[in-house]
Amino acid sequence: MPVQRSLPLLAVSCESISAIVKPFGKKTFTVDVRKSIVRGHELGAHPKILATQFGRSSNQIYRILKNNRDDDGVVHRQSPGRPRTTSRAMDRNILRACREDPRRTSTDIQVSVTSPNEPVPLRRTIRRRLQVAGLHGRRPVKKQLVSLKNRKARVEWAKQHLSWGPREWANHIWSDESKFNLFGTDGIQWIRRPIGSRYAPQYQCPTVKHGGGSVMVWGCFSDTSMGLLKIIFGTMDRYVYEDILENTMRPWARANLGRSGVFQQDNDPKHTSGYVANWFRRRRMDLLGWPKRRLKGVRASNANQKFAQLEAAWKSISMTVVQTILDSMPRRCQAVIDAKGYPTKY
């Protein structure tokens, strides 16, 4: 029998083969591995023994030995695999198309980079090329549109106030109004769930008709104290805003800052209306011409309960937080200048 006749050689061949490091991966056939297989067969090892020693199938061993005989003993390097469908020039065109317009989809890029003399790359291939270059698909940040005129005004304002310190920002009144939902959120909620469990109750986001209601509040603060928090019923128009300025903001400002306060407000239409502007002229209050405190994860059954939660959170804001915000004004101004008037992370 052939197996019995090769027994004396098997002892030698097994010792030689055992010294060879077993390669990792099912398709790993380096030049050294191929040479070792051929050498083991020359020492008399049966292909099935070689297959066991190298962790390969017998067909793979037979194929390597056959290729060795056909090539007169020359061991060739293993093929690197399927050739790329895109050339280096096409890869550059893919990156250029994405950088010119980051909102282009893989389908749009596929159409723009395809030429008659080259194969059409798959959309998945285009996405892989972009990912390798560090261009991953992400949800863009939503910021208010800023026109060219307003960008210039923002940069000019930031340059004028870049060198201001705590002394310059003293006696300024900062104001803002915000809406808080009684149920859910206006933003995007993310969950992590197993495959096939999309409609499981624990992975659903409950909703109610008409949004579940909300509470609108207005508040202000200065460098010395937190102002009052005012709940707004109904729609806030110029008349409601003027009433807040007259009966809420002005008494608090007179008691805490005297007559030297400078008021800050955003450019909401009701803030800049002629009706409100006339009130500032009559009261001889200077205008500076933005801080938010979020209350996440706390639900309320009605508007009064929600306002009580907001008022408690508002009163819990320490002056350290306010001072930190005021101290960050130089960084905020510099960020506006660096962004050339476009919205920043603040």
From TrEMBL:
Q: Where is the Transposase Tc1-like domain?
A: 91-162
- One of its Pfam families is HTH_Tnp_Tc3_2
The UniProt entry's GO biological process terms, in alphabetical order, are: DNA integration; DNA transposition
Q: What does UniProt give as GO cellular component?
A: nucleus
Superkingdom assignment = Eukaryota
Q: Where in the cell is it found?
A: Nucleus
Query: What is a single molecular function from GO for this protein?
Result: DNA binding
Q: What is this protein called?
A: HTH_Tnp_Tc3_2 domain-containing protein
User: Which species is this UniProt entry from?
Assistant: Caenorhabditis japonica
